[in-house]
Design a protein that fits this description.
48% of the residues lie in helices and 22% in strands. The protein is an alpha+beta fold. The N and C termini lie far apart (32 Å).
Length: 146
């Protein structure tokens, strides 16, 4: 393994062992979780939206190092972004954060957090459109199988 690839592997393991933004949030504007039935990975995301921005984002979950590290890295990247900016994060964004080549099966693990984030934003936007204002209420949803 070359030194650059080794550095990325170590970064992934560090995010897995010491995830950023890990834990649940009581005052989330939206709470959503997704599940990958192929491998059992789970990501639960809590997002607090203020003035159209992701004021805070946290995640909880279980799964492989790739799924949990990508959730840690993605929550770092999404925090503080406008919802529209966060929606612009892509598969390539995740792959760049991870810095390694993934097999198609591992790619599904890496993208679980991105799917959870984007679906959370979609649910939040639908809730706001239906309610007209979500400042005091919270949009929640059940589990989705990816």
């Amino acid at each position: 393994m070359d030194p650059v690839e080794q550095m990325y592997h170590e970064n992934i393991l560090d995010h897995y062992k010491h995830p950023h933004n890990f834990g649940k949030m009581d005052n989330a504007s939206v709470h959503h979780h997704e599940y990958n039935p192929l491998c059992g990975d789970r990501i639960e995301m809590f997002i607090r939206v203020e003035d159209g921005r992701i004021a805070d984002v946290r995640f909880a979950g279980k799964g492989c190092a790739i799924s949990q590290a990508s959730a840690s890295m993605l929550t770092d990247a999404a925090k503080g972004k406008a919802l529209a900016e966060a929606e612009q994060l892509t598969k390539d964004s995740i792959l760049e954060m991870l810095g390694i080549t993934l097999t198609p099966i591992r790619l599904k693990c890496a993208l679980l957090s991105l799917d959870t984030l984007k679906n959370s934003i979609h649910i939040y936007r639908a809730y706001v459109a239906k309610q007209g204002d979500a400042t005091s209420d919270h949009a929640h949803t059940g589990e989705r199988n990816g």
